[in-house]
Structures are given as C-alpha cells and as structure tokens.
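Quick one:
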Amino acid sequence: MIIYIHGFGSSGEANKAKLLRAHFHEKGIRFIAPSLPTIPDLAIHTLDELIESYLANETVYLMGSSLGGYYALYLSDKYHLKAVLINPAINAPETLDRAIGHGVNYYDNSAYEWNASHVEMLESYEIEEPDLKNLFVLLQKGDEVLDYEEAFDVLEGAKMIVEEGGTHSFEGLERHFEAIQRFFGVALKV
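Output:
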C-alpha cells in the first residue's frame, strides 16, 4: 500500500495525487491519497490511524510532496517505513511561519486559517537524524517555493535525484515512476 501525503493547502484530489493514483492503479499497486486537515496534529493523527490499520495486513510505503514530504519524513522515522519525498518542506515550521493568516485550499477553494499554534505543532514532528536508507528524495532546483539545498543538505546520503530547472510541483514526475517502484520493491501486475 502506498499512501501519498499532499502538500500545504492542497488535497488528495489535486493533480499530482491523481497522476500517481492513475499510474499505481494501472500497475495493480494499492494506492491512496487522503485529503488531510490543515491542522498538523489532526493530519498526523489521521495518517497514524491509516498506517496502523494497513500495517496489520500489508507493507506500507509513503510518498509526500512539500509539507507532505515533511510529514512523510516524520512517519517514515516513527514506523520505519520507506518514503519518497518530493520537493519536501524540510524546514516546514520556518517555511510555514510565513503563511500565517487566512488561506484558500488550492483544489476546492475552501477557506482555512493558519496560525502560530499550527507552526508550533509542526515543530513537534521534526526529525533530527533521519534514517537515510529508507528515503528516496526527488528535488528540482527550480522550485520557486522551497530552496532545494535545504533538503539536499539535511538528507544528503539518502537515495536522491536532483534535477536542473523544474518547479515546486515537480515537473515530469512520471519519468521517475519506475525508480519509485524499484525503491519500494513493489511487484507489478503484468
């Protein structure tokens, strides 16, 4: 089972989630992309429950983009799971401190409020020494939201692909689907 964790202000129905869902379903690989609450503690609680329910019967793999990459890093460490991090917000508390205020979900236009207590919640999910062998990091230098070097420096030693150009949403992700499957070691239906 692959669990995809979307980014800040996004949804499990956003374009990247749809692209991944279509690919993995076509390959016969179980995949879910839940739409998570904006409040970090609620998002992590939801993910904890999902992971624990699936771990009872199958291997779980994580994928996360941006803030979802930050959550995936935390959950990978907590449950000793393999995770693919796509342009992760490796310093999420600092990055999202700048987002305090009212916001609108990119996918469904629902309004939310992001405040200092949410940033404090994020701080409790920081991982000081990530288990690099469980991580596959995809970075694009052209990320207009995050400095790719932050993730590069913290996660150096993990399996990593760093590409010139690109964007925060990670252009051409489909080029890496086979490498992601190999990293997870998931069998394909032929």
